[in-house]
Amino acid sequence: MDILLSLKALILGIIEGLTEFLPISSTGHLIVVGDLLDFRSNGKVFEIAIQLGAVLAVIFEYRQRFKHVLTHVGKDAEVNRFVVNLGVAFIPAAVVGLLFSKQIKLYLFNPISVATALVVGGFIILWVENRQKSIPPRVNRVDDMRMRDALVVGLAQICALIPGTSRSGSTIMGGMIWGLERKVATEFSFFLAVPVMIAATFYDVLKNYELFTLQDIGLIVIGFVSAFIAGLLAVKALLKFVASKNYVPFAYYRIIFGGLILISWQMGWISWTEM
């Protein structure tokens, strides 16, 4: 196996795992870093593998919660409401994504669009966090969420179809604006990632199953394992972080990172792929 290609796969797997659950856009980082590394593999298959690795990290971290849901669905009113809420939140972005995914990938899957979304999203996070200082949360437990709360989070998730916006960032900030306590919005974003990413994975597998070959199995394993481990670390760290702090540092990171990409492009220092 090519050592350099394996190292690139390791880097991209770690980036997927670390950024999938942080409000800084995993897709955006993969587009930018993949372009910078000139990563050449069976791209779609590799992307599917590392996304699955990241989502399994959430399932593992919350394995007791998911086990409880699976064994009590249909029997427990609170569990039933939780499952319905996930379904309601899942639908909006799924529908819009199916309708416009080709156009989005054609026009927005490039480093410059990603950088612009990173910067804009950073300023939105700063605004939301500043707003929350004077507005107490209305929902303080995930199990206290109602269907309308889940629907608002689901509608906010539509914004994440724009690469660089961040799925977790959209759902967390949307939830906080609507009245979810910061940790509640974060946990619900984690839970929502499971059906969203599993559905996206199966959809991509059905569309690209003919691309799966044994040739890239080594890279797939490297990316999958590194994404799982990095994702697990990211989830644990973020839950601990938001227990006492806010998302302002991530906002500044987005603005600086996106700004550097735009400056390097404008000055001609790096020839980013525009389309």
From TrEMBL:
This protein's name: Undecaprenyl-diphosphatase
Enzyme class: hydrolase
Topology class, membrane: Multi-pass membrane protein
Similarity comment text for this entry: Belongs to the UppP family.
Species per Swiss-Prot/TrEMBL record: Neisseria zalophi
Catalytic activity: di-trans,octa-cis-undecaprenyl diphosphate + H2O = di-trans,octa-cis-undecaprenyl phosphate + phosphate + H(+)
One cellular component (GO) term of this entry: plasma membrane
Matches recorded under Pfam families: BacA
Compartmental location: Cell membrane
Higher taxonomy: Bacteria, Pseudomonadati, Pseudomonadota, Betaproteobacteria, Neisseriales
Function: Catalyzes the dephosphorylation of undecaprenyl diphosphate (UPP). Confers resistance to bacitracin.
